[in-house]
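Could you help me review a protein record that somebody else here produced? My question to you is simply how this chain folds and whether the tokens agree. Thanks in advance; the entry in question is below:
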Amino acid sequence: MITKIIILAIYVTILFLIGIIASRRVKSMSDFYLGGKKMGFWAVAFSARATGESGWLLIGLTGMGAIAGYSGYWVVFGELLGVFISWQFMAKRFKKRSDEYKAITIPDYLQSHFKSSTNSLRIISASTLVIFVVIYVASQMDVTGIAFESMLNIDYRIGALIGFFIVLAYIFIGGFVAAVWSDMFQGILMFFGLVLLPIVVWFSMDHGTGITQGLNAIDPTLTQIMGRSNDGMMNLFTILGFSMIGLGFLGSPQVYVRFMSTKSEKQIDKGKWIALLFTFLTDAAAVTIGILARIYFTKEGQDPEAILGNGGEDVLNMVTNEFLPTVLVAIFIAIVLSAIMSTIDSLLVLASSAITRDFYQKIFRPDLKDEDLTKFSRLVTVAMAIAALGIAVILYNLYPDRQIFWIMIFGWSGIAATFCPVIILSLFWKGYSEKGAIASMITGFMSVILFKFVVANIAGIGIYFKELDVLAPSFLLAMIVGYIVSKISPSKNI
């Protein structure tokens, strides 16, 4: 226990030092929210991937590998495809336009792109951003409490508070620069931890049988790459659900502000290969860890969730404690916290920018200059963090049996379905109008709720949409509605 606390203390100290060093670069609101647009490709690539993955990569995806078997690799395919399309075809185009517009936030970009004469687009985009970001951050803080409880035997509430104060301290001091630099440090920890762990586990296991043979001995459906069901339609929806997770990388604000922050478009070309390598190796390693855990810890006929936790969420904890010495277990605790906090810091800065820049400055106090808002930006960041922590505690008290990773994916899907279709259409279709963008955002926002709480419960088709999840259909509807409304109400400014 003492070893774990010492390692954790070293980890926290490094984050604080990053915050202090980063604070020297914060002289204006642009510095606080975008690092003055001077970030290099290494930092941006690692930060974008660490932010995009969150604790779901280490705890959620390892668990999915254990439950789904070989079909879990469809998540790797979907995420890799999403990251490639985003960096190859969208990032530089978005960077160029956001620089032309001198945008600091995503609502800034949209307001300038559509030459909007009202604040409707800014208000809707900023409002939806704050709502889903706070939900997403709350789920991440919830996972922080769970991680402290399961890995360090520290009470959930104390663990959540510790995580809250750690991440708030360094971004309060250093803002976006601290978030990106800490994400890079944490992303490196995640990368090496995930890539090396399945190698260690493999060489520590009994090799009397291979992986495929081991899975077949437990349940032959685990080796079916095209899905585990006898229902072909169910398998199709499952594969689509796994693959479409990558749609969230095609315009999610927490990722795309990283592109806005780069020094130049050339940095994006360099960072692309780092991002792709990170995605492929870490995602594949996470699924593989889950598969190896399924072979090692369960036998034929056993309920995996009774052994590996709800949705396999105990897999990583069980594997590290079984195969690693105490020092490395302690480092893995820091890696899990890295995955969680790299997302929390980015989202808090994002939500804070929506309140400070898009509501307070642009709507209520346009007379204020950027440099006058740095202190206010920090206070808003604290307020957003407290709101998210409150929601996390409420979830803990009211829903003790909650499936936290579905809450996490709900928040991720809400942000993605609201913004990704708008970013895509604004970059590639000149006929996209402001009313079309508003319609897309409202449709994406409402569709996530509709598919999650209504369609999924409809007899006959609900089971299929549960496997598909909410992102893909919400994304598609937002694109279609945006196209139709833009045709009916074309823009006069573009």
